[in-house]
Specification:
The chain is mostly beta strands. Helix content is 7%, strand content 38%.
Length: 144
């Protein structure tokens, strides 16, 4: 059975809500062609503020997807983040509108070049290694 979308939920924005096997609660699969990122989901203000801070590693094929209540220009920084990251800003259709590299412990803000509703952080180099570019569209499957 498919979940009933709540107002403003990822399901309303075209995310897949599976009826069979699914990511675990609090996680999502972000799929670009044949490549999948197993991502933690940061939905609340507190989860988004903490992000990937204080982590010593981020295994290949994993990351974090930030879900915002509305599309806007997004600013990110790397304070207390020890891992070099790639960051993809995505619109309501999960289309990549910007990709930037982020250096560990930098307190300089990096702004998206276009409004974003979702932001995906992965280990630095992942997007290039998997041929993901601005304009590509992901399929996102959110866990319960």
């Amino acid at each position: 059975m498919e979940n009933t979308p709540q107002e403003g939920s990822p399901q309303e924005r075209g995310a897949t809500v599976p009826t069979g096997p699914a990511p675990t609660a609090g996680s999502a699969w972000v799929i670009f062609g044949s490549d999948t990122v197993r991502a933690e989901v940061a939905r609340t203000t507190e989860e988004r503020a903490r992000g990937l801070m204080y982590r010593d590693q981020l295994p290949a094929g994993t990351g974090m997807i930030f879900v915002f209540p509305e599309a806007d220009i997004r600013s990110f920084w790397m304070a207390n983040t020890y891992i070099a990251l790639d960051i993809a800003f995505m619109d309501a259709d999960f289309r990549v509108v910007d990709i930037q590299q982020m250096e560990p412990l930098s307190e300089e803000f990096t702004q998206s070049r276009a409004p974003a509703l979702f932001v995906l952080e992965v280990p630095q180099g992942w997007f290039a290694e998997h041929g993901v570019e601005v304009g590509d569209q992901a399929q996102v499957v959110f866990g319960p």
